[in-house]
Amino acid sequence: MLLLTDEMRLPALQRSFCIWLEKIREETSGRPNIKEQLADSKGEISTWTEVVRAALGRANHTWPSLFQAIAEDWGTGGPKDGKKAQPQWRGVLGILQRTLGSTGVLLYPSHPTLAPHHREPFMLPLNFTYTAIFNALGLPVTQVPLGLASNGLPMGIQVVGGLKMDRLTLAVAADLERAFGGWRCPAEIL
């Protein structure tokens, strides 16, 4: 198999959260928002009241759903001049599609650190965008286990392909898994 590699800098991925949020809004426009859904379509929850309840251990909703409600609160504004902005996600998808085509893949971290401790992701809630951006763009991604780090934590990477190139991401993932040893049990099972 011929392998040509290039390091690629994609400044647009620094805006992954905003792009993800924009795409989610587009996909869900005309549907009940998350705050209505959490209130069983009987009005809306009070996001910040629910956050306080959750912090006190009296949550009615999960932290991820509350973070989504907060994101919804933050992003309700639009362009101040009344003009409709060209969606950012289209530009990022275009760049990735031109770069990857039908034969390229992007190896991209699944998370900015090794496996986080339990509940640690709640303190860094935007780290999910390492995977969410490609989901929002509709690109195929295959997660590859790469073995264990020296401290025993699992390592992995995601293989991102161009549109409808699932078979390519799966083939590359299988090769990487074979080369690096794939999944290993991080601890002895009793």
UniProtKB/TrEMBL annotation:
InterPro entries on file: AS_sf (IPR036928), FAAH2 (IPR052739)
GO cellular component: endomembrane system
PANTHER family hit by this protein: FATTY-ACID AMIDE HYDROLASE, FATTY-ACID AMIDE HYDROLASE 2
Name of the featured protein: Uncharacterized protein
Taxonomic source organism: Hyalella azteca (Amphipod)
UniProt lineage: Eukaryota, Metazoa, Ecdysozoa, Arthropoda, Crustacea
